[in-house]
Each structure stands twice: as structure tokens, then as C-alpha cells.
Amino acid sequence: MRHTIVKISAAAAVCGALFLLQGCGAAVKQCTDPQLDIPETIIPGGYADTLCIADLEWSEIFSDPLLKDLIQKTLDNNKDMLTAAARVRELERLHRVTRADQFPALRARGNLEQENYQYTDADPVKDNEFGMKAAVSWEIDLFGRLRWANRGAMAQYLASIESQRAMQMTLVAAVATAYFELAALDNELDIVLRTRDTWRENVKQARLRFEGGLTTEIPYQQAQVEYASTAALVPDLQKEIALKEHEIALLAGEFPSSVERSKLNTHDSFPDLMHVGVPSELLLRRPDLMAAGQKLKSAMADVGVAWAERFPKLEISFAAGVENNTFTHFFTGPYWYPILNLTSPLFAFGKNKARYQAAVEAYNQERYQYEQKVLEVFKEVNDAVSSYSSAREKVSLLGNLQDASRKYVELALFQYQNGYISYIDVLDAQRSYFNAEIDYSNSVRDEFLAIIGLYKALGGGWSVPEEESETSGK
Predict the structure, then answer these.
(1) Strands across the sheet with 125-140, in order?
(2) Of 45, 132, 159, 377, which has the fewest beta carbons less than 10 angstroms from its beta carbon?
């Protein structure tokens, strides 16, 4: 009889393995792969470039030590970043919980009971019972339910890591953007203050000429208008600077405070950074795309779990212990028993099938979202390339305009002093130079921001702390 049981058990194990091998593919046969049809190049009409600026560390592009310190402070203290890190740790623990379900579980239980009863015309009776029991149970994963659940938990964990990296990339870009915007506001304020002082001197000179009868009152009043208009720009700029400092402090996880920064570099030009790489590398480099891919795997695992729920579950248990009604003979009443539980859904009005079909549709939703994300990423890169090309060209053109405006002012002053033109012409030249300085400063800022946007769109190599890299490789 024992040999028969062994043969039946061996046959059941072989059949279960065959079911599992066939079931893994059958479970997700309705899960269609994403339809990406990725273009040969990132930029339409471009070419596949083996080089990519995203392979550089951000510190190799922006070497400002104050910016580096500010970025590191943000990565250490930003509350959203800390939340993302906590989410990673949470899902790592939950994955361990799910993975443990695939292995036998050992439990122990002790009990002390006292039953008091009295039948009619009988003496009261106390029935003591002391016991200790240990049990081990193991669900045989015939149709891969536990393995699919483990895959889903792992995918969620990996998605949280990629989401943390995406958060890091977004924060670094946000800090760098705000930093250069703040530096540009400082530079604009310097230009305005310098121009305001020039207009104040112009007002004095125009008043002296007017009072001396050399000119009419019009140049004097015009100089006052220009001075007042320029001076009125100062409070707004000071407010914008304060608000930008508050924004940076919030990103860095601090209360509003002043931000130490360098001056905007408006002299040195950047080398041409138009290297965008190849499409396949873009898909692997962008952490938000990687996170979307892991969510898709998690949705597929949910399909596998729902599929396996439609079939029987087999659990093997073995319990052993001791039980007696006195402590003195506690170990004289041992017992043990094996248990084989086979549970199977029989008739549930189509509930399990509907749950499986619902999981397939949930997978389809994630697939469409992943396909949409890929389209959005390629759009972001092309937008960033266009913005960078435009900003780079604009810096060159406005630099020429600033030089021409400065020479125009010098010539206007020379001709005015020699009596060839009126003072109004000098004021017009100075106004044009002022506007050209502001426009050029903003164009330099826009070039910095365009580089940040392109680098971020390409999934640039924002440095990852070592502990995060080690976690990702688990």
C-alpha cells in the first residue's frame, strides 16, 4: 500500500510540473506585447549617434561648486525624495513577504484549557487540557499563482527604484533650472541698477542744460521718464529674486532663506552638445520609461495570478505535538497527523473567469500607457532639441545685438557732443542698449535651461548614490 501511495504522489508531481510548464505561457497568452515601432533615429531626419550627452555626469556640464552643493543638499533633504526612498524600502519588504509564501511555513502553538461542567445529579467536573503543537504547511504551486505573485511584487519593487531615480532626475533638473533663473534675475537686477544710475546722471545733466538755456525742457522731462521707468523695475525684480530663493529652499527641504550662488556667466559659450544617442538607449536610460515597463510586468503578473486562481490549490501539512490533562504526564500523550488539502473552485457564476478577463484589460491599460509614454518621451526629446537649437542661435544673435547697441551708444554720445544729433537720440540709443542687455542676459539663461531640458529629456546621468545603485542590483 505504501508503494502505491508513493507512485501516485510521484505521478501527481510529474503532472503538476507539466501543468506548471504549460500554464506559465497559457496564463498570459492574451497579454499582447507593446506595439512600439520605434523609429531608427530619435530626431526625424537625423542619424543614429553613438555619442550622447546623457552619458556625461551633470557635474561635467555644469561645474559650479555652489550648484553642486545645492543639488546634493536637495537630494539629501527633499521630502518628496525621502518619500520615494521610503516607498522603495516598503516595497522591498513587501516583496520579501510575497516571496516567502513560496516556501513552507512552520508554526507552533501552546494551549492551556480548563473546562468546567456539571450534569444533572452529578458532581462538578474540571477537565484540564495542556498541549503543545508544531505544524508545517506548504502550498504546492501547481499553476504558478505564487510565482506570478512573486514576479509582480518584484516588478513593483523595481518600478519604485526607477520612480525614485526619475524623482531624482526631476529634482536635480528643477534645482539647476531655478538656480540659473535666480542667477539671471541677479544679473538683470544689476543691469537695471546700473542703468538706473546712468539715467539719474542723465537727469542731472539734462537739468543743467535746460536751466542753462542750452536745451528745451523736453530732454529733461524725457530723462526723468526714463529714470522713473527703470527705477520702477527694481521692486518687481527684488520680489522675483526672493520668491525664487524661497522656491529653491523648498526644493532643498528647508525654510525660506537666502541662497548662495554664483553670477551668471554671460561670456563663455558652450560647446555644441547636440548628441542625442540612439532610440534603444533612450528607452533604457529614461527611469520613468523603465518604471512604466516594470508596471507593465506587474500587470502581467496579476494576469497570471488571476489565471491560476481558476484552478485547484494543493497544500500539504504535517502537525505533531503532545497533549495531556496533567503536567506530570505531559509528554506521555504525543500525536501527529499529515494533511493533504485540495481545494478547487467548482461553480461561481463566472466570477473567476471575469476576474481573469478584468486583469487582462488592466494589463491592456498599462500597455497603452506604456506606448503613450514612449511617444511622449520622443516628443520631449525632439522638443528639447528644438529648444536647444533655437536658444543657441538666439544667444549668438542677441550677443551681436548687444555689441552693436553698445557701439551705437558710444557713437550717439560722440555725435551729440559734437552737435550733430539731439539729446533725444542719445536717450533712444541708451534705451536700445538697455533692452539689448536684458534680452541677451535672458537668452544666456534660456541656453542654460535648454541644456538642462535636453539633458533631462535624454535621461541624463544624474549621479545615483552608491547605496541606491547596490539596491537596484539586488
Answers:
(1) 105-117, 125-140, 313-324, 334-343
(2) 45
Q: Determine the Cα–Cα distance for residues 434 and 444; give it in Å rounded to an integer.
A: 16
Give per-10-residue mean pLDDT for the chain (474 aa): 35 38 70 90 78 81 89 94 95 95 90 75 75 90 94 96 93 95 97 95 89 86 93 97 97 94 81 80 90 96 95 92 74 82 86 94 97 95 94 95 96 90 89 96 95 91 48 43
Burial, 390: exposed, middle or buried (Cβ in 10 Å; 0-12, 13-18, 19+)? middle
Rg, Å, the chain Cα set: 37
Task: Count other C-beta atoms under 10 Å from residue 88's C-beta.
Answer: 21
The model carries a pTM of 0.84
Q: Residue 181: left if φ>0, alpha if ψ -120 to 50, beta else—which one?
A: alpha
Contact 28, 37 (CB under 8 A): no
Secondary structure letter of residue 269 according to DSSP: P
Return d(Cα 250, Cα 435) in angstroms, integer.
Answer: 32
Q: What is the 3-state secondary structure (H, E, C) of 429-441?
A: HHHHHHHHHHHHH
Comparing CA positions, the residue from 291, 246, 209, 265 lying closest to residue 459 is: 291
DSSP 32-57: PPP-----SSSSTT----S-BGGGSB
What residue type is assigned to position 152 of the chain? Answer: G
Distance (Å, rounded) from C-alpha 213 to C-alpha 219?
Answer: 12
**Element at 135 (helix H, strand E):** strand 125-140
Quote the CA–CA distance of 259 and 251 in Å, as a whole number.
12
The secondary structure of residue 270, as a DSSP letter, is P
Backbone angles phi, psi at 145, to 5 degrees: -60, -45
Q: How far is it, in rounded angstroms, from Cα 112 to Cα 128? A: 8
What is the DSSP secondary structure assignment for residue 127, as one 8-state letter?
Answer: E
Residue length of the chain: 474
**Separation of CA 99 from chain center:** 26
